[in-house]
Specification:
2 copies of one chain form a homodimer. By secondary structure, the first copy, chain A, is of the alpha/beta class. The first copy, chain A, has helices at residues 12-23, 37-45, 56-60, 72-83, 100-110, 154-166, 176-203, 207-213, 216-221, 229-238, 240-262, 266-286, and strands spanning 2-8, 27-33, 51-53, 65-68, 91-94, 117-118, 120-122, 143-146, 170-173. The two termini of chain A are 31 Å apart.
Chain lengths: 287, 287
């Protein structure tokens, strides 16, 4: 049980963690900080946070844990401002989808306090965003990846792990660079493909007719193109290197498929489709 | 009301149409023909067909309508075999996802009987396949595209239209080439991307770990990679030209996104993602 948790950027992820911890009786007061007063007061009236603060010092004073749940581009400035406050034993964590770049920003911004920072990424989400979509069971059965650095304080790490486990998540630790390569493939690449596909189809000639004829498959395939554009812009830029590598691999794979279609190689094409179906079906039954 | 309907290739689409027509009292007997005796007898015991036949002549004798619901690569041979049977007023239709190539095969195979062929494509489906997945409401609220040729008999066209409307579908007529360009964009391209993505991720180094960490977004994005590989191989080859054009457009679009990420052009990237989200959200509320 911690007395006070402060969320910087009260959206789906921070809000859902807060709801889960409240429901479990694992936190006393939840304070929300953000730049948009209307959103903060909505989060408060929904019961996602107990108190709204627009002043960072007031928001974090007395908190045992501060969670950065903002877009990644905002985090560097927040680490610097947190380092300037008299916070003693405060533990800081984040929920960013990219870890190496966030660790780099935290090391630069937090200075001596870097050892109390626990880099984290809950591998869960929804294309719905905002505190209104927050729900206590969002992390049930999902993985949370923590990527502690060599300097990371063991007690701080244990606190963050325990609070994620309280929310029903399975906590896994790995190297930040490994996390970024893994997520570039499983999440960042698919998002880029979905955004690019929708923009390609809707923006071209006859875009309206195309969207009208799109069937259920297209609907599912592009669901993630309804995700928050700012968040995803930041993720793509923060994980640029691993994402470009994944994109390059996908492009050469797609080129091979294109060559098979062009050359009318039915057997090779059917084999590739069959292999993909088998992998997809196997992955689905595993979950 | 027609007395007898014969389905060549009893799977999800043909089976669902049969169920819908039966439920509406619009058909007397449904006969199923196929090469796999076990599958046919399963369709019969599920009540999807009334009678199973492995002999084509016996299957179609006395039928008012024959539906080709096989993979496209099998259709050319079936048109030729149907042309050789003494069938008088029989109307023939198909449910293939590509129309120009099927029309070409029908014209070549059916000869003088080509005027009684009505090319059709129900724009509905599911990654589940087979007669066991057939359901009477599959086409409710979905579009069925008919692409009659200049020679197509008006009464044959009217019959097929009425039977699709009886199944709850909205029937639209358009040019076969236009249909193929439209479907290349909305359906064939997305399927190729999903198959290529799953095969790329699962087949590379660390594929098992990647599938383990894939979150809900990946699951949705790749649902259509669980579709029937043979059917999709045939579709890709039959609609080669339009599909390659759509693939080419997508590739150059993806290249632009890649360039933005590489150059760190956050503003342009955010705009593109925002545009895609707006189009996706608009498309979703429309349905």
């Amino acid at each position: 049980m911690i007395k006070r948790l402060t969320i910087l950027g009260v959206g789906l992820i921070g809000g859902s963690w807060a709801r889960a911890l409240k429901e479990a009786g694992a936190v006393g007061e939840v304070v929300g900080w953000g730049r948009d007063a209307a959103r903060l007061s909505q989060a408060q009236s929904l019961g996602v946070i107990d108190r709204a603060e627009q002043d960072l010092a007031q928001a974090v004073t007395g908190a045992e844990l501060v969670v950065l749940a903002t877009p990644i581009s905002v985090m560097a400035g927040l680490f610097e401002r947190l380092a300037a406050l008299p916070l003693d034993d405060l533990v800081v964590t984040d929920v960013g989808s990219v870890k190496a770049e966030v660790v780099r920003m935290a090391r630069a911004g937090l200075g001596a306090r870097f050892s109390r920072f626990v880099p984290g990424h809950p591998v869960a989400g929804d294309e719905k965003t905002g505190a209104a979509a927050a729900r206590a069971d969002l992390f049930q059965g999902h993985r949370v990846v923590l990527t502690p650095a060599a300097e990371t304080d063991a007690a701080a790490l244990a606190l963050v792990r325990r609070l994620w486990e309280t929310a029903g998540a399975e906590v896994v630790e790995m190297d930040a660079a490994h996390h970024d390569r893994l997520l570039a493939a499983t999440s960042h690449l698919p998002h880029v493909l979905a955004f690019a596909l929708v923009d390609c189809l809707a923006g071209g000639e006859g875009g309206e007719e195309i969207l009208r004829y799109a069937a259920g498959g297209f609907r599912d395939l592009t669901r993630i193109a309804s995700s928050d554009p700012v968040m995803w812009r930041d993720i793509c830029l923060a994980n640029r290197e691993a994402l470009l590598a994944a994109l390059g691999e996908f492009e050469s794979h797609l080129q091979r498929v294109k060559d098979m279609i062009e050359a009318g190689q039915g057997e090779a094409l059917g084999e590739l489709f069959g292999r993909a179906k088998a992998a997809r079906d196997r992955f689905c039954t595993k979950r």
